[in-house]
Specification:
This protein is mainly alpha-helical and about 400 residues long. It has two domains: about 1-190, MFS general substrate transporter like domains (Growth Hormone, Chain: A); about 200-410, MFS general substrate transporter like domains (Growth Hormone, Chain: A, Up-down Bundle), CATH 1.20.1250.20. The chain contains 14 helices and no strands. Helix 3 (about 70-90) runs antiparallel to helix 4 (about 95-125) and helix 8 packs antiparallel against helix 12. Residues about 190-195 have low confidence and may be disordered.
């Protein structure tokens, strides 16, 4: 790898870690501040966050297309500046409408930045290295989100409006640092180099890729499960200690941070991607079943929850590695922003489906709901496994054909 590319990757990885910390602070501190200190109704905050998430979902692909035209660095700097504006809006907001403006700015800019950072990585490594790059970024997301959530929670526990404003100012300062890092990326502006081909909506017309993204949005339900469904299940339906909810969140983050990149490095072929996805389907179903079974146990609730969370996280790691291999080893290089933006829609759809579909299922059906949810996620993961096996067979056939037509040595 060239020195220039290594510099780009190091800076983007650093920006990703800071960006995820910013997101953790923004999500935790803003909700607590506007509900407890400003006095907005929880239902109103929920509506605002839903609208902001849907707006981000609708705009992320146009942002990716625009980034491919104007240049990934220019787009990243512009979006990072919007994050600063979002926190400035939070700091001065004392009512619903200004809070809604800040939330929409925050969610749209964070969604766009996530896609652009991934696109910069994908644009500066070869096809197989994209999967490892995705794993590194995911590890940084988990670490940064965990740290940011802790910082936002500290502001809430300490109490007082001033500390929340300090937290918003701190996050805005980190966003300014990210802006400076992205502005100094050694990437030529699009107008100075060869213009990138304008391919139109090729990512959305790529049926294979869109199919993978659709299945990924179901597999990625692990995100709202860990962040939303599992804590609510523990606090509302189980006779478990109060500390179990944060412990399960911490266990998930720790396992991902320690093992995601190492495991993903093993997934270097279609066959290994299929094996990783098969393991993911099995452990995701088992994890959901164990978490649901915690409601039926009497003396082993804690052990059952920890085992279920561990299996769910193993499934998240192994399924994610296989999924990234399928999604990113065969995409064209003409539109990295667009492809990463379309894939980024998968996580946004999962965040919407979790509270809207999975949560009512679990609250209504209890342990049975967890099994149904596990079957749905495992089914989507198995479908991706079948696709990986087809890719492996196609690659074997192509390799055999090349050997047949290769002229024999005299």
């Amino acid at each position: 790898m060239q020195s220039n590319q290594r510099t780009i990757l190091r800076r983007v990885y650093f920006a990703q870690g800071l960006g995820s910390t910013i997101e953790g602070v923004g999500l935790s501190a803003a909700v607590l501040y506007f509900s407890v200190h400003v006095g907005l109704a929880p239902a109103a905050i929920g509506v605002v966050l839903t609208v902001a998430t849907l707006l981000a979902l609708a705009l992320v692909v146009p942002i990716g297309i625009l980034a491919d035209v104007i240049g990934l660095k220019v787009a990243a700097v512009a979006l990072s500046t919007l994050v600063v504006a979002a926190f400035a809006t939070y700091a001065v907001a004392h009512g619903l409408w200004l809070y809604a403006v800040g939330a929409c700015l925050f969610m749209v800019s964070q969604a766009g930045l996530g896609a652009i950072r991934q696109a910069i990585v994908a644009d500066n490594v070869d096809a197989h290295a994209r999967v490892r790059g995705r794993a590194v970024m995911q590890t940084l997301i988990n670490a940064g989100m965990g740290l940011g959530t802790v910082l936002g929670t500290i502001a809430a526990v300490a109490g007082g409006d001033t500390l929340f404003v300090v937290a918003f100012a701190f996050a805005a300062g980190l966003a300014l640092i990210c802006t400076a890092i992205l502005a100094r990326l050694p990437i030529a502006a699009r107008t100075k180099g060869a213009p990138r081909q304008r391919p139109g909506l090729i990512a959305l017309r790529d049926r294979r890729f869109v199919g993978i993204c659709g299945l990924a949005s179901i597999v990625l339900l692990t995100m709202p499960i860990v962040a939303v469904l599992l804590p609510l299940w523990i606090t509302d339906r189980l006779d478990a200690p109060d500390w179990m909810a944060p412990v399960t969140l911490g266990l998930n983050a720790l396992l991902v941070i320690c093992t995601q990149t190492r495991w993903t490095a093993r997934v270097s072929s279609d066959t290994r991607a299929a094996g990783s996805l098969a393991l993911g389907a099995t452990t995701l179903l088992a994890g959901c079943a164990l978490i649901g079974a915690a409601a039926l146990t009497t003396g082993a609730v804690t052990a059952t929850l920890l085992a279920g969370t561990t299996l769910l996280t193993v499934g998240e790691i192994t399924a994610g590695a296989g999924m990234w291999h399928l999604a990113f080893t065969r995409i064209p290089t003409t539109a990295p922003g667009q492809y990463q933006a379309v894939y980024g829609m998968s996580s946004s759809v999962a965040r919407v489906l979790g509270p809207l579909a999975a949560l009512p299922l679990i609250l209504a059906a209890g342990a049975t709901g967890w099994i149904v949810l596990g079957l749905v996620i495992a089914g989507a993961t198995t479908s991706l496994c079948v696709l990986a096996l087809r890719d492996a067979r196609s690659a074997d056939v192509a390799a055999g054909a090349r050997r047949v037509v290769q002229p024999r040595a005299a």
